[in-house]
Protein backbone atom coordinates (compact mmCIF):
# COMPACT_ATOMS: atom_id res chain seq x y z
CA UNK A 1 0.00 0.00 0.00
CA UNK A 2 1.82 3.02 -1.29
CA UNK A 3 1.27 6.74 -0.87
CA UNK A 4 -2.29 7.36 -1.83
CA UNK A 5 -3.53 9.70 -4.53
CA UNK A 6 -5.21 11.63 -1.68
CA UNK A 7 -1.82 12.52 -0.24
CA UNK A 8 -0.52 13.46 -3.69
CA UNK A 9 -3.49 15.73 -4.45
CA UNK A 10 -3.45 17.37 -1.00
CA UNK A 11 0.24 18.12 -1.50
CA UNK A 12 -0.47 19.51 -4.98
CA UNK A 13 -3.17 21.78 -3.53
CA UNK A 14 -0.73 23.05 -0.89
CA UNK A 15 2.07 23.65 -3.40
CA UNK A 16 -0.04 25.41 -6.05
CA UNK A 17 -2.51 27.22 -3.78
CA UNK A 18 -5.37 25.65 -5.75
CA UNK A 19 -8.89 25.43 -4.29
CA UNK A 20 -9.04 21.96 -2.74
CA UNK A 21 -12.23 20.10 -3.64
CA UNK A 22 -10.32 16.83 -3.32
CA UNK A 23 -10.45 15.45 0.19
CA UNK A 24 -13.72 15.17 2.08
CA UNK A 25 -12.67 17.32 5.03
CA UNK A 26 -15.41 19.77 6.01
CA UNK A 27 -14.36 23.42 6.08
CA UNK A 28 -17.25 24.19 8.42
CA UNK A 29 -17.19 23.50 12.15
CA UNK A 30 -19.47 21.35 14.29
CA UNK A 31 -22.35 22.76 16.39
CA UNK A 32 -21.04 25.22 18.98
CA UNK A 33 -22.91 23.75 22.00
CA UNK A 34 -21.40 20.33 21.23
CA UNK A 35 -17.87 21.79 21.09
CA UNK A 36 -18.45 23.54 24.42
CA UNK A 37 -19.67 20.29 26.02
CA UNK A 38 -16.45 18.54 25.00
CA UNK A 39 -14.35 21.36 26.43
CA UNK A 40 -16.33 21.19 29.69
CA UNK A 41 -16.04 17.40 29.83
CA UNK A 42 -12.25 17.58 29.45
CA UNK A 43 -11.99 20.14 32.26
CA UNK A 44 -14.35 18.08 34.43
CA UNK A 45 -11.95 15.13 34.22
CA UNK A 46 -13.44 12.89 31.50
CA UNK A 47 -9.95 11.96 30.37
CA UNK A 48 -9.40 8.28 31.15
CA UNK A 49 -10.35 5.12 29.27
CA UNK A 50 -14.07 4.76 28.71
CA UNK A 51 -15.70 1.31 29.14
CA UNK A 52 -14.68 -1.14 26.40
CA UNK A 53 -18.16 -1.11 24.80
CA UNK A 54 -18.35 2.68 25.12
CA UNK A 55 -19.87 5.19 27.51
CA UNK A 56 -23.31 3.75 28.57
CA UNK A 57 -25.22 7.00 27.87
CA UNK A 58 -23.88 7.05 24.30
CA UNK A 59 -24.88 3.42 23.74
CA UNK A 60 -28.36 4.31 25.01
CA UNK A 61 -28.49 7.35 22.69
CA UNK A 62 -27.45 5.21 19.70
CA UNK A 63 -30.12 2.59 20.51
CA UNK A 64 -32.75 5.36 20.86
CA UNK A 65 -31.63 6.84 17.51
CA UNK A 66 -32.03 3.49 15.70
CA UNK A 67 -35.48 3.00 17.28
CA UNK A 68 -36.65 6.55 16.47
CA UNK A 69 -35.44 6.64 12.87
CA UNK A 70 -35.69 3.04 11.69
CA UNK A 71 -37.95 1.26 14.18
CA UNK A 72 -35.13 -1.11 15.13
CA UNK A 73 -34.56 -2.26 18.72
CA UNK A 74 -31.01 -2.79 19.96
CA UNK A 75 -30.09 -3.48 23.59
CA UNK A 76 -27.67 -0.76 24.75
CA UNK A 77 -25.95 -3.52 26.72
CA UNK A 78 -24.51 -6.04 24.24
CA UNK A 79 -25.97 -4.94 20.90
CA UNK A 80 -24.29 -1.52 20.59
CA UNK A 81 -20.52 -1.00 20.53
CA UNK A 82 -18.77 2.38 20.34
CA UNK A 83 -15.67 2.40 18.12
CA UNK A 84 -12.82 4.69 17.08
CA UNK A 85 -14.72 6.03 14.09
CA UNK A 86 -16.61 4.03 11.51
CA UNK A 87 -13.23 2.98 10.11
CA UNK A 88 -12.34 0.91 13.17
CA UNK A 89 -15.84 -0.60 13.22
CA UNK A 90 -15.42 -1.77 9.61
CA UNK A 91 -11.92 -3.12 10.26
CA UNK A 92 -12.93 -4.94 13.44
CA UNK A 93 -16.06 -6.33 11.74
CA UNK A 94 -14.07 -7.84 8.86
CA UNK A 95 -11.45 -9.22 11.27
CA UNK A 96 -14.25 -10.73 13.34
CA UNK A 97 -16.20 -12.23 10.45
CA UNK A 98 -13.55 -13.37 7.97
CA UNK A 99 -11.08 -16.22 7.88
CA UNK A 100 -8.07 -16.23 5.57
CA UNK A 101 -9.19 -16.94 2.00
CA UNK A 102 -12.73 -15.65 2.52
CA UNK A 103 -14.25 -13.24 0.03
CA UNK A 104 -15.89 -9.92 0.82
CA UNK A 105 -18.15 -8.19 -1.71
CA UNK A 106 -18.33 -4.41 -2.13
CA UNK A 107 -19.88 -2.23 -4.80
CA UNK A 108 -17.31 -0.65 -7.08
CA UNK A 109 -16.34 2.22 -6.81
CA UNK A 110 -15.97 1.92 -3.04
CA UNK A 111 -14.49 3.67 -0.03
CA UNK A 112 -10.75 3.04 -0.14
CA UNK A 113 -10.50 1.54 3.35
CA UNK A 114 -12.56 -1.54 2.43
CA UNK A 115 -10.01 -3.41 0.29
CA UNK A 116 -7.23 -2.49 2.71
CA UNK A 117 -8.96 -3.77 5.84
CA UNK A 118 -10.18 -6.88 4.00
CA UNK A 119 -6.51 -7.65 3.36
CA UNK A 120 -5.65 -7.05 7.04
CA UNK A 121 -8.28 -9.69 7.81
CA UNK A 122 -6.69 -12.11 5.32
CA UNK A 123 -9.75 -11.87 3.09
CA UNK A 124 -10.06 -10.73 -0.49
CA UNK A 125 -12.35 -7.92 -1.56
CA UNK A 126 -14.32 -8.79 -4.70
CA UNK A 127 -15.61 -5.67 -6.49
CA UNK A 128 -19.15 -5.67 -7.86
CA UNK A 129 -19.45 -2.86 -10.42
CA UNK A 130 -22.33 -0.44 -10.06
CA UNK A 131 -24.05 0.12 -13.41
CA UNK A 132 -23.84 3.59 -14.93
CA UNK A 133 -27.16 5.05 -16.04
CA UNK A 134 -27.50 7.65 -18.83
CA UNK A 135 -23.72 7.81 -19.11
CA UNK A 136 -23.57 8.10 -22.92
CA UNK A 137 -21.94 11.36 -23.94
CA UNK A 138 -25.13 12.59 -25.58
CA UNK A 139 -27.72 11.16 -23.21
CA UNK A 140 -30.15 13.85 -22.09
CA UNK A 141 -30.86 12.75 -18.54
CA UNK A 142 -28.57 13.23 -15.58
CA UNK A 143 -26.26 10.23 -15.27
CA UNK A 144 -26.10 8.18 -12.10
CA UNK A 145 -25.40 4.73 -10.69
CA UNK A 146 -27.62 1.69 -10.14
CA UNK A 147 -27.41 -1.81 -8.70
CA UNK A 148 -26.48 -4.48 -11.26
CA UNK A 149 -28.21 -7.46 -9.65
CA UNK A 150 -26.84 -9.95 -12.18
CA UNK A 151 -23.29 -8.81 -11.47
CA UNK A 152 -23.91 -9.14 -7.74
CA UNK A 153 -25.38 -12.64 -8.11
CA UNK A 154 -22.47 -13.72 -10.29
CA UNK A 155 -19.95 -12.49 -7.73
CA UNK A 156 -21.19 -14.72 -4.88
CA UNK A 157 -19.14 -17.92 -4.46
CA UNK A 158 -18.82 -20.59 -1.81
CA UNK A 159 -16.14 -18.44 -0.16
CA UNK A 160 -18.22 -15.26 0.09
CA UNK A 161 -18.72 -14.39 3.73
CA UNK A 162 -19.62 -10.70 3.90
CA UNK A 163 -21.26 -8.06 1.73
CA UNK A 164 -20.24 -4.48 2.50
CA UNK A 165 -23.03 -2.09 1.67
CA UNK A 166 -22.42 1.66 1.77
CA UNK A 167 -25.60 3.70 1.45
CA UNK A 168 -25.59 6.67 1.12
CA UNK A 169 -22.57 5.87 -1.01
CA UNK A 170 -19.10 7.40 -1.18
CA UNK A 171 -17.82 8.39 -3.75
CA UNK A 172 -20.96 8.50 -5.92
CA UNK A 173 -23.58 10.12 -3.67
CA UNK A 174 -25.97 7.30 -4.56
CA UNK A 175 -28.75 6.32 -2.15
CA UNK A 176 -29.80 2.70 -2.70
CA UNK A 177 -33.53 2.48 -3.42
CA UNK A 178 -36.06 0.34 -1.54
CA UNK A 179 -36.22 -2.08 -4.47
CA UNK A 180 -32.42 -2.37 -4.67
CA UNK A 181 -32.13 -3.03 -0.93
CA UNK A 182 -34.88 -5.66 -1.10
CA UNK A 183 -33.04 -7.47 -3.91
CA UNK A 184 -29.72 -7.33 -2.03
CA UNK A 185 -31.39 -8.57 1.17
CA UNK A 186 -33.04 -11.48 -0.64
CA UNK A 187 -29.70 -12.61 -2.07
CA UNK A 188 -27.99 -12.30 1.34
CA UNK A 189 -30.67 -14.48 2.94
CA UNK A 190 -30.47 -17.07 0.13
CA UNK A 191 -26.67 -17.26 0.23
CA UNK A 192 -26.35 -16.82 4.00
CA UNK A 193 -24.18 -13.67 3.80
CA UNK A 194 -23.55 -11.26 6.65
CA UNK A 195 -24.03 -7.59 5.75
CA UNK A 196 -21.76 -4.86 7.04
CA UNK A 197 -23.56 -1.63 6.22
CA UNK A 198 -21.68 1.66 6.37
CA UNK A 199 -24.21 4.46 6.89
CA UNK A 200 -22.00 7.39 7.92
CA UNK A 201 -23.96 9.70 5.55
CA UNK A 202 -27.37 8.59 6.89
CA UNK A 203 -28.34 12.16 7.81
CA UNK A 204 -26.94 13.89 4.71
CA UNK A 205 -29.58 13.01 2.13
CA UNK A 206 -31.04 15.63 -0.24
CA UNK A 207 -34.11 16.21 -2.39
CA UNK A 208 -36.58 13.34 -2.53
CA UNK A 209 -34.13 10.55 -1.75
CA UNK A 210 -34.78 8.53 1.43
CA UNK A 211 -32.16 6.64 3.37
CA UNK A 212 -33.32 3.18 4.44
CA UNK A 213 -31.32 0.72 6.47
CA UNK A 214 -31.12 -2.84 5.19
CA UNK A 215 -31.25 -4.14 8.78
CA UNK A 216 -34.94 -3.20 8.90
CA UNK A 217 -35.88 -5.61 6.08
CA UNK A 218 -37.34 -9.03 6.93
CA UNK A 219 -34.77 -11.54 8.17
CA UNK A 220 -31.92 -9.00 7.99
CA UNK A 221 -31.48 -7.71 11.55
CA UNK A 222 -29.96 -11.05 12.62
CA UNK A 223 -27.32 -10.95 9.84
CA UNK A 224 -26.47 -7.23 9.69
CA UNK A 225 -23.92 -5.03 11.42
CA UNK A 226 -24.95 -1.38 11.01
CA UNK A 227 -22.16 1.17 11.29
CA UNK A 228 -22.32 4.93 11.62
CA UNK A 229 -20.28 7.73 13.12
CA UNK A 230 -20.40 11.28 14.46
CA UNK A 231 -17.79 12.64 12.04
CA UNK A 232 -19.94 13.34 8.98
CA UNK A 233 -23.20 13.94 10.86
CA UNK A 234 -21.81 16.64 13.18
CA UNK A 235 -18.94 18.03 11.04
CA UNK A 236 -16.40 16.67 13.53
CA UNK A 237 -14.37 14.28 11.38
CA UNK A 238 -11.35 14.62 13.67
CA UNK A 239 -13.12 13.13 16.67
CA UNK A 240 -13.35 9.58 15.37
CA UNK A 241 -16.32 8.35 17.36
CA UNK A 242 -18.31 5.65 15.58
CA UNK A 243 -20.64 2.84 16.57
CA UNK A 244 -21.91 -0.51 15.42
CA UNK A 245 -25.31 -2.08 16.12
CA UNK A 246 -26.26 -5.70 15.54
CA UNK A 247 -27.24 -8.98 17.14
CA UNK A 248 -25.26 -9.67 20.35
CA UNK A 249 -23.34 -12.63 18.89
CA UNK A 250 -21.96 -10.53 16.00
CA UNK A 251 -21.32 -7.43 18.12
CA UNK A 252 -19.41 -9.54 20.67
CA UNK A 253 -17.16 -10.80 17.86
CA UNK A 254 -16.49 -7.23 16.71
CA UNK A 255 -15.74 -6.19 20.32
CA UNK A 256 -13.27 -9.06 20.65
CA UNK A 257 -11.28 -7.76 17.66
CA UNK A 258 -11.67 -4.12 18.69
CA UNK A 259 -10.20 -4.66 22.17
CA UNK A 260 -6.78 -5.25 20.61
CA UNK A 261 -7.03 -2.52 17.99
CA UNK A 262 -7.63 0.53 20.19
CA UNK A 263 -9.40 -0.97 23.23
CA UNK A 264 -11.42 2.25 23.69
CA UNK A 265 -11.08 5.95 22.94
CA UNK A 266 -12.60 9.43 22.97
CA UNK A 267 -14.06 9.72 26.49
CA UNK A 268 -14.97 13.46 26.42
CA UNK A 269 -16.33 13.18 22.86
CA UNK A 270 -18.45 10.18 23.81
CA UNK A 271 -19.90 12.05 26.81
CA UNK A 272 -20.82 15.10 24.73
CA UNK A 273 -22.22 13.07 21.82
CA UNK A 274 -24.44 11.06 24.16
CA UNK A 275 -26.39 14.28 24.74
CA UNK A 276 -26.16 15.63 21.18
CA UNK A 277 -27.46 12.54 19.38
CA UNK A 278 -30.97 13.04 20.78
CA UNK A 279 -31.24 16.41 18.99
CA UNK A 280 -29.43 15.37 15.84
CA UNK A 281 -32.41 15.95 13.51
CA UNK A 282 -32.47 19.69 14.08
CA UNK A 283 -28.74 20.12 13.49
CA UNK A 284 -28.69 17.74 10.53
CA UNK A 285 -31.51 19.69 8.87
CA UNK A 286 -29.36 22.82 8.93
CA UNK A 287 -26.27 20.99 7.67
CA UNK A 288 -28.30 19.38 4.87
CA UNK A 289 -29.49 22.78 3.63
CA UNK A 290 -25.92 24.09 3.52
CA UNK A 291 -24.59 21.03 1.71
CA UNK A 292 -27.48 20.86 -0.74
CA UNK A 293 -26.90 24.48 -1.72
CA UNK A 294 -23.19 23.77 -2.24
CA UNK A 295 -24.03 20.70 -4.31
CA UNK A 296 -26.35 22.75 -6.53
CA UNK A 297 -23.71 25.47 -7.01
CA UNK A 298 -21.09 22.88 -7.88
CA UNK A 299 -23.36 20.90 -10.17
CA UNK A 300 -24.51 23.99 -12.09
CA UNK A 301 -20.94 25.25 -12.33
CA UNK A 302 -19.62 21.92 -13.63
CA UNK A 303 -22.36 21.87 -16.26
CA UNK A 304 -21.36 25.37 -17.39
CA UNK A 305 -17.70 24.33 -17.45
CA UNK A 306 -18.55 21.34 -19.66
CA UNK A 307 -17.69 18.74 -17.00
CA UNK A 308 -20.93 16.77 -16.95
CA UNK A 309 -22.00 16.16 -13.35
CA UNK A 310 -23.62 12.95 -12.12
CA UNK A 311 -26.61 12.82 -9.81
CA UNK A 312 -25.56 13.12 -6.14
CA UNK A 313 -28.44 12.51 -3.74
CA UNK A 314 -26.40 12.42 -0.55
CA UNK A 315 -23.08 12.90 1.17
CA UNK A 316 -20.15 15.16 0.34
CA UNK A 317 -19.27 14.30 -3.26
CA UNK A 318 -20.19 14.61 -6.90
CA UNK A 319 -18.84 12.77 -9.95
CA UNK A 320 -18.00 14.62 -13.15
CA UNK A 321 -17.27 13.32 -16.66
CA UNK A 322 -14.01 14.81 -18.01
CA UNK A 323 -14.28 13.65 -21.62
CA UNK A 324 -15.61 16.96 -22.97
CA UNK A 325 -12.27 18.52 -21.93
CA UNK A 326 -10.47 16.06 -24.21
CA UNK A 327 -9.41 13.81 -21.34
CA UNK A 328 -10.00 10.09 -20.87
CA UNK A 329 -7.76 9.48 -17.84
CA UNK A 330 -8.85 10.94 -14.49
CA UNK A 331 -5.42 10.62 -12.89
CA UNK A 332 -3.72 12.73 -15.57
CA UNK A 333 -6.61 15.18 -15.54
CA UNK A 334 -6.34 15.64 -11.75
CA UNK A 335 -2.56 16.14 -11.95
CA UNK A 336 -3.07 18.90 -14.56
CA UNK A 337 -6.17 20.54 -13.10
CA UNK A 338 -4.41 22.60 -10.38
CA UNK A 339 -2.15 24.14 -13.04
CA UNK A 340 -4.81 24.52 -15.72
CA UNK A 341 -7.67 25.76 -13.52
CA UNK A 342 -6.41 26.19 -9.93
CA UNK A 343 -8.69 23.46 -8.59
CA UNK A 344 -7.97 20.07 -7.03
CA UNK A 345 -10.19 16.98 -7.51
CA UNK A 346 -9.64 13.26 -6.95
CA UNK A 347 -9.72 10.70 -9.77
CA UNK A 348 -12.58 8.26 -9.21
CA UNK A 349 -10.20 5.48 -10.23
CA UNK A 350 -8.77 5.79 -6.69
CA UNK A 351 -12.02 4.14 -5.55
CA UNK A 352 -12.31 1.60 -8.37
CA UNK A 353 -11.01 -1.93 -8.05
CA UNK A 354 -12.05 -3.73 -11.24
CA UNK A 355 -9.09 -3.72 -13.70
CA UNK A 356 -11.34 -2.70 -16.62
CA UNK A 357 -13.17 0.02 -14.65
CA UNK A 358 -13.87 3.32 -16.45
CA UNK A 359 -11.42 6.15 -15.81
CA UNK A 360 -13.29 9.16 -17.19
CA UNK A 361 -14.75 10.26 -13.85
CA UNK A 362 -13.33 12.53 -11.17
CA UNK A 363 -14.71 13.32 -7.72
CA UNK A 364 -15.32 16.84 -6.47
CA UNK A 365 -16.17 17.47 -2.82
CA UNK A 366 -18.73 20.09 -1.75
CA UNK A 367 -18.38 19.88 2.06
CA UNK A 368 -16.49 23.19 1.89
CA UNK A 369 -17.45 26.81 2.57
CA UNK A 370 -19.81 28.22 -0.06
CA UNK A 371 -17.06 30.73 -0.89
CA UNK A 372 -14.64 27.92 -1.82
CA UNK A 373 -17.20 26.16 -4.00
CA UNK A 374 -18.03 29.41 -5.81
CA UNK A 375 -14.35 30.20 -6.32
CA UNK A 376 -13.64 26.71 -7.68
CA UNK A 377 -16.59 26.91 -10.06
CA UNK A 378 -15.51 30.32 -11.40
CA UNK A 379 -12.01 28.99 -12.04
CA UNK A 380 -13.32 25.89 -13.83
CA UNK A 381 -15.61 27.96 -16.07
CA UNK A 382 -12.73 30.34 -16.88
CA UNK A 383 -10.44 27.42 -17.78
CA UNK A 384 -13.01 25.53 -19.85
C1 LIG B 1 -15.65 9.25 6.02
C2 LIG B 1 -16.09 7.85 5.83
C3 LIG B 1 -15.82 6.87 6.81
C4 LIG B 1 -14.94 7.15 8.00
O1 LIG B 1 -15.64 7.43 9.13
P1 LIG B 1 -14.83 7.75 10.49
O2 LIG B 1 -15.90 7.81 11.50
O3 LIG B 1 -14.10 9.02 10.28
O4 LIG B 1 -13.88 6.61 10.70
C5 LIG B 1 -16.31 5.59 6.61
N1 LIG B 1 -17.02 5.29 5.51
C6 LIG B 1 -17.28 6.18 4.55
C7 LIG B 1 -18.05 5.78 3.36
C8 LIG B 1 -16.81 7.49 4.67
O5 LIG B 1 -17.02 8.38 3.69
From TrEMBL:
SUPFAM superfamilies: PLP-dependent transferases. This is Aminotransferase class I/II-fold pyridoxal phosphate-dependent enzyme. Residues 19-379 form the Aminotransferase class I/classII large domain. Belongs to the class-I pyridoxal-phosphate-dependent aminotransferase family. It comes from the Bacteria. Signal peptide: none annotated. GO terms for cellular component: cytoplasm. Its cofactor is pyridoxal 5'-phosphate. It holds the Pfam family Aminotran_1_2. GO terms for molecular function: kynurenine-oxoglutarate transaminase activity; pyridoxal phosphate binding. Gene3D superfamilies: Aspartate Aminotransferase, domain 1, Type I PLP-dependent aspartate aminotransferase-like (Major domain). InterPro entries: Aminotransferase_I/II_large, Kynurenine-oxoglutarate_AT, PyrdxlP-dep_Trfase, PyrdxlP-dep_Trfase_major, PyrdxlP-dep_Trfase_small. Keywords: Aminotransferase, Pyridoxal phosphate, Transferase.
